[in-house]
Amino acid sequence: MNRREFLAGAVASAGLAGCIGPSFGRKSEVSEGTCGRILFGACRSSVGDVTIMRDLGYDFWEWSAGAAFDPAKDDEWWKRQKDEIAKRPLPLRSCNGFIPGKFRLTGPDANHAPALDYAEKVLRRADEIGVKTIVFGSGGARNVPGDFTGKDRPDLEKGTRQYADFCRELARRVADLKTTAVVIEPLRPNESNIINYVFQGLAICREVDSPRIRQLADIFHMMMGGDPASAIVEAGPLLGHCHIADYETRQFPGHNPRETCRLSPYFKALEAIGYAGGVSCECGWGDEKDFAKNAKTAIETMKGLL
Length: 306
Description:
The protein is an alpha/beta fold. Helices cover 41% and strands 13% of the residues. The chain is built from 12 helices and 8 strands. Strands 1-2-3-4-5-6-7-8 form an 8-stranded parallel beta barrel, surrounded by 5 helices. The protein is globular, with a radius of gyration of 19 Å. The model is unreliable at 6-34 (pLDDT under 50).
């Protein structure tokens, strides 16, 4: 199925016209709905910032997977690290920056073995402390090498298969995890040459068919890449996590109030599927001294869309 066929089907099945309207139809059941509401978080790590977030009503914080779980560090370091993470006044619910660019997942020089060892250790440490999702964007590792302007054009179809094969083998290795899942992150076309749209990630999720591999919707990338809100409806129960930033500027939600209306269809779609997972601000925050004020604007903006 190509993108045009997918979008036409998604719009038709959801009863939408351009993803705008008062209702997306009947809500579908989601696997993680114990709290019954969307949870709000942000990518910040210091005790002070997370304390500010708690006081403003945020539910969790998000951090870099490499910083949080560094597989190169030994078990003694990990014991100390767990204590440091526990000092934050909110739970660490998700992590980004999964596979460093030094690993090659696609192309003629792809080598999955060391990346799988790295990823498995990250996931096992994350699962040990109850982290829900590890975001698999990792454009540097997954982008298919080659030159679009010359003869050495990248084989994007093969690269996508290689990426899917990596996901399949990783899911097999960590099938015993209790909590943590990897969520595939589509990146806008100018940041990645494969998996730019939610439907492309969903195809891999369905092919792998494991609770350890789910889908992410990054609302910033969706807006900038032309991925409509109906893609969230199509994802339904496979949607495990969301990222958000303001349109074009990639700043915190509400940074430009005139653009907030662009976020509305995506939040309506989340409500339509009964989504009760995380929406995390992965964005710029302006001047550091204004973090508290801007974080307040962000959460008020997001809650105002529900």
